[in-house]
């Protein structure tokens, strides 16, 4: 009879484990249903966001197309540049007056040097010619502006770090070393 109790005890343990496994399986099924609902909601949200992005891209494309329809003549009717405005890329026929006075003064110094037959000049020399002195802050400000002009094709940046007049030519309004 001791053997019968041992078998019943083992059988009872197995039944307990089976019941626990059933409870676990049911819990996981419920969790899977809940996760499927969460996944469906997330997929709906993703679809909405994709559609919103696509609609925005389409609207921006249409807006950009309308904006680029503005003629070049209308773009060049800017009466006076705004300080801190972007330096436009140089192109043939673009007047120096589209630049702010600070940039025009730098071009004036280089135009005077070109007219006098002088070569490239360092930012420190430009700062001196503009009457700004040789303090590092002033020289770096001039260098930054001159580099921006060089990047946009208004000036040439030599390998030595000196600047010279670029492809543009003509009078610079208000140019001069006394400016």
Question: Characteristics of this structure?
Answer:
5 helices; 2 strands; 2 domains; elongated; disordered C terminus; Arc Repressor Mutant, subunit A; mainly alpha; 179 residues
Structural summary, described in words:
With 179 residues, the chain is mainly alpha-helical. It has two domains: 1-69; 96-165, Orthogonal Bundle (Arc Repressor Mutant, subunit A), CATH 1.10.10. The chain has five helices and two strands. The chain starts with a helix and ends in a 14-residue tail after the last strand.
Total E-strand runs? 2
CATH-assigned homologous superfamily of the largest domain: Winged helix-like DNA-binding domain superfamily/Winged helix DNA-binding domain
Average pLDDT metric: 80
Could you spell the SSE succession in H and E letters? Answer: HHHHHEE
Strand order of the largest sheet: 1-2
Taken as a percent bin, the fraction of beta residues is under 5%
So what's the CATH class of the largest domain? Mainly Alpha
User: How many distinct folded domains?
Assistant: 2
Helix-residue proportion: 55-70%
Rough outline: elongated
In short:
By secondary structure, the protein is mainly α.
Strand and helix layout:
Layout: H1 2-68, H2 72-75, H3 101-115, H4 123-129, H5 136-151, E1 155-157, E2 163-165
Antiparallel strand pairs: 1-2
Helix pairs in contact: 4-5
